[in-house]
């Protein structure tokens, strides 16, 4: 049998056994807590709508028992009499393990946030930009963890921080256009002025959004070609998003002949309203005898489409046009078209010299 009173590195084997048992016990308890959160918590999270329990499961799943043991080993040996070298070594192991585990927990929280946001925003633009956010976020996170860890280990990180700052400024200046488009892409994803599938008008370019990347956004025009726009340029201009229209305003005009009686002119606005009210998805707004044209009496009509679809709007406009044409045909109202009336004054049959003599005599 072992003699537990024997000394090893200045402490009895019994003391070492107690220290190791304490370290392992704490590690086992942490493992049990992790198992309960991951297994039981996952089942509970599936039945709730809260994100807190899902986030807790994601963070707990990143727990590494070997890293926890590096910390608990230092805790267990606090009651032992150790040399400065061994004490510093254990402290360094615990510091590295603790900061690594802390970084994993923060990375798990970040990963959960990215995944949750990606599920709510399944379009390709969100996936692309969120991947970039996640990559940069992890780089920044582990850079901070590394500097904190080195600082706690006694390493002077002042020069490292200064070097990273200067290097970061140099990189930012060299890639400012790329970074501008990158942050513009993040703004598009977060603020959502448009998403994939929206039909937008940018300056004079009209098309449907096909892809939102880290640097460019691509539109498919109505004529078939692809339009590629810089993300930063998109945010600096005015964008008209047609997909988000709740209703579409429709305006059209027509003219009738000057020979139309005034009694019929007075009836035309009410006729048009009656015909528009009879067409589905159309809501009458106004109809007015607007003015006197060169060869027509002009009317202007405005109505609203309760559905903003452009093709449906054309179908409704066609139905209204046919109804107006048929009704005017029944009422005997004629549509005007460009015409000119020439008035000819009859010539006198007297010879020209007689006209001139009469004119000179009259003047005398």
From TrEMBL:
Residues 140-176 form the Mechanosensitive ion channel transmembrane helices 2/3 domain. It is a multi-pass membrane protein. Keywords: Cell membrane, Membrane, Transmembrane, Transmembrane helix. It comes from the Bacteria. It is found in: Cell membrane. The keyword Nucleotidyltransferase does not apply. SUPFAM superfamilies: Mechanosensitive channel protein MscS (YggB), C-terminal domain, Mechanosensitive channel protein MscS (YggB), transmembrane region, Sm-like ribonucleoproteins. Residues 252-335 form the Mechanosensitive ion channel MscS C-terminal domain. The keyword Transmembrane helix applies. Its main location: membrane. Gene3D superfamilies: 1.10.287.1260, 2.30.30.60, 3.30.70.100. Residues 177-244 form the Mechanosensitive ion channel MscS domain. The chain crosses the membrane at residues 15-38, 92-114, 126-151, 157-175. Belongs to the MscS (TC 1.A.23) family. This is Mechanosensitive ion channel family protein. It comes from Paraperlucidibaca wandonensis.
């Amino acid at each position: 049998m072992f003699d537990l009173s024997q000394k090893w590195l200045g402490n009895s084997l019994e003391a070492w056994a107690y220290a190791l048992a304490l370290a392992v016990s704490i590690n086992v308890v942490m493992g049990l807590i992790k198992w309960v959160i991951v297994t039981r918590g996952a089942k509970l999270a599936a039945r709730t709508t809260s994100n807190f329990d899902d986030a807790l499961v994601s963070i707990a799943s990143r727990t590494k028992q070997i890293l926890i043991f590096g910390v608990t080993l230092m805790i267990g040996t606090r009651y032992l009499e150790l040399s400065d070298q061994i004490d510093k070594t254990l402290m360094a192991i615990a510091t590295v393990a603790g900061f690594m585990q802390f970084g994993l927990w923060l990375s798990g929280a970040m990963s959960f946030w990215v995944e949750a946001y990606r599920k709510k925003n399944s379009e390709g633009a969100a996936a692309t930009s969120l991947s970039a956010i996640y990559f940069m976020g992890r780089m920044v996170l582990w850079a901070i963890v590394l500097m904190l860890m080195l600082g706690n280990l006694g390493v002077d990180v002042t020069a490292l921080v200064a070097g990273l700052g200067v290097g970061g400024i140099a990189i930012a200046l060299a890639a400012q256009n790329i970074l501008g488009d990158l942050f513009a892409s993040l703004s598009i994803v977060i603020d959502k002025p448009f998403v994939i599938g929206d039909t937008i008008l940018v300056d004079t370019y009209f098309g449907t959004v096909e892809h939102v990347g880290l640097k460019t956004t691509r539109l498919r025009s109505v004529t078939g070609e692809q339009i590629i726009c810089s993300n930063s340029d998109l945010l600096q201009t005015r964008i008209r998003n047609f997909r988000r229209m709740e209703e579409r305003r429709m305006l059209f005009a027509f003219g009738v002949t000057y020979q139309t009686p005034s009694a019929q002119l007075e009836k035309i606005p009410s006729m048009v309203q009656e015909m528009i009210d009879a067409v589905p998805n159309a809501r009458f707004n106004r109809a007015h005898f607007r003015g006197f044209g060169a060869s027509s009496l002009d009317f202007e009509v405005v109505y609203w489409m309760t559905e903003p679809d452009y093709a449906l709007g054309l179908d409704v406009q066609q139905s209204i046009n046919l109804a107006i044409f048929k009704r005017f045909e029944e009422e005997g109202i004629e549509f005007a078209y460009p015409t000119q009336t020439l008035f000819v004054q009859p010539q006198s049959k007297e010879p020209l010299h007689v006209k001139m003599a009469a004119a000179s005599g009259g003047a005398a």
